[in-house]
Amino acid sequence: ELFAQAPIDLYPGIAVETVNDSSRYFVIRIQDGNGRSAFIGIGFGDRGDAFDFNVALQDHFKWVKQETDISRESQELDSRPKLDLGFKEGQTIKLNIGNMPTKKSGSAKPRPAGSAGLSLLPPPPGGKVAPPPPVPPLSSTAISNHVTPPPVLKSSGAGHA
What we know:
By secondary structure, the chain is an alpha+beta fold. Helix content is about 25%, strand content about 10%. It is built from two helices and three strands; from the N terminus they run βββαα. The protein has helices at about 45-80, 140-145, and strands spanning about 15-20, 25-30, 35-45. Strands 1-2-3 form a three-stranded antiparallel sheet, with no helix packed on it. The radius of gyration is 41 Å and the shape is flat.
């Protein structure tokens, strides 16, 4: 036989309230079948259990609110007039896409060289490569620190980009 129940319509609300000076205790309003109500206190020995109870109530009412909003939106969509976006009898559309063959010309316009978004510089005049910069003479600091300079490579006359 049911002694009492605690219907919770809204959280936070009068049905479940947190105690001001503790995060582990709550006040719950219980009701019997005759409409009488009383307030009782409950407490959790572990702070984590109290936190889980609080979060479970918040998540439940967040879910209830989302379900209410979704059903309200679907009812509003049903009441709106439907849009007919289909083609009517004999209706056509024409798409102009650049550089595509058409029935009149038969082929696409040729693209000029280098128009693909990449432009290249012309080669240097005469195809000659500039000589490398002169290498400074070895200093006594480099020798005393046992640092050897990189070897100087002779140019073979082949061009580098």
